[in-house]
Amino acid sequence: MRKVAVVVLAASVLAGVTSLAQQSAPYYLTGNLKDALGTVTTDKGDQRTTFFGMIGFKVVPTEKGLEFTLFELSLVSKGVPTERGEAGVLGVNLIDDDIAWHDAKTGRASFAPTLTLHYELIDRVKGFRTTKAQPEGDVFAPHTETMTGKMSAQFPEALKVAEKGSTYVDLEMTFDLSSSVVGSIRRVSLICRVVIDWTRFFTPALYLRIQPVFIGTGPKDPTATGKAFPELMKRATELWNRCGSVRCIKFVVNDPIYLNKPAYKVLETTAEANSLRAEVSVADAVEVFVVDRMNFACDWGGGACFSPGTASAKIVTCDQQLSVPAPCPCTWCPATCPPCPPCQTGAVNYYHLAHELGHALNLDHPGRPYGLADVTAGSNMEPSGFCCDNPNVQSAKNCRNASNPLLYWGRALCVGAPNIMD
């Protein structure tokens, strides 16, 4: 569990507010950043860029005033040049913060958050943290860096809580590198105004954009890959909709991008999968590359997630998820992951993409072998083999722990409930 920052606003802002007993339930202020101009300081000097992202505050009226909790903060940029080359997609995401303060004279609240920093250059320079000792290698966990700094939030004068409507907050942020792996990015700074919306009792839905990438000349190509994607995406959407009663998580799917490069239809090595991933980079989406077959990846479950939990997260999978070949060497499955059903051949891997999208949302396998967020044993995040589908089970813990800088706020009807309420 991450620590949260708390700021107490002066009691003067409660003018006109009814009894505190009627306001015990929290209020929320949430908003998305778009085209926010900022500066990234690199080993090549200051670089101007634009950011998108989101911010979220929980607001609780108290006898002393309004108690603010900064619970969401993310920033994403397409990247900037460094001495080692282009940084690639850059993302920072809130992981930890300290107690904040408020100046009653200015109405300004100051936070001191800690954030995870990742950019694609880190993967190119350092590779991944995945170890060969794990029974399923479908997670290529990235090295990440840490930033700490200050964020000043200026709210309107005489701020009052509300169950609906909008207001604004002026943000001024400066984050410095505090834990380095590559060290090409030293500072991120940003000044912007964000429109934020009031809600009560629940937070708005969180959306993750998906960019499918198929191999072929276009949608009219009968030999193009991607035939399994609609069914895999349907099952993933259904499983993650079960988070609704805990934390609403939705997907938005872009139109497919087609690569007219037939050599990628059958992948024989990890190096080929890496080359495919480099072909498409969409800054605001998780790319899902679909090939015909991955002849080397039976122990991956026929697919994998690279740089999980970051703005650079990408998934490589194959149409064979719905046409599993026989025979398939997955005899290890019943012994090493008991929640799996008996290994079988045929159209069994319906929930493979739901599992890989869980990794993209920073979720680990049970036992946290890759150092990502904790998950529930027996849930969809249980590892599987290529002939052994991931469990059709969602958990409250999985829903709560999901995170990625690419998530953004939206409105949706969220009615599902997890199978496991842990």
Briefly, what is this?
The chain has 422 residues and is mainly beta.
Description of the structure:
The longest helix has 13 residues. The strands form 4 sheets. An 8-stranded antiparallel barrel has the order 2-3-4-7-10-12-13-14. Strands 11, 15, 16, 17, 19, 21, 22 and 23 form an 8-stranded mixed β-sheet that branches. It is built from 6 helices and 23 strands. It is mainly beta. The two termini are 14 Å apart. Strand 2 and strand 3 form a beta hairpin. The N terminus is likely disordered. The radius of gyration is 22 Å and the shape is globular. It folds into 2 domains: 190 residues; 206 residues, Collagenase (Catalytic Domain), CATH 3.40.390. Helix 2 packs across helix 5.
The major sheet is characterized as: 8 strands, antiparallel, barrel
**Architecture (CATH level 2) name of the largest domain:** 3-Layer(aba) Sandwich
**How many strand units?**
23
Residues in helix, %: 10-25%
N/C terminus separation:
14 Å
- Fold-level CATH name of the largest domain: Collagenase (Catalytic Domain)
Task: Provide the gyration radius in Å.
Answer: 22 Å
Sketch the topology as an H/E string, one letter per element: EEEEEEEEEEHEEEEEHEEEHEEEEHHHE
Strand fraction equals: 35-45%
Which structural traits does this protein have?
Collagenase (Catalytic Domain), mainly beta, single chain, 6 helices, 8-stranded antiparallel beta barrel, globular, 422 residues, disordered N terminus, 8-stranded mixed sheet, 2 domains
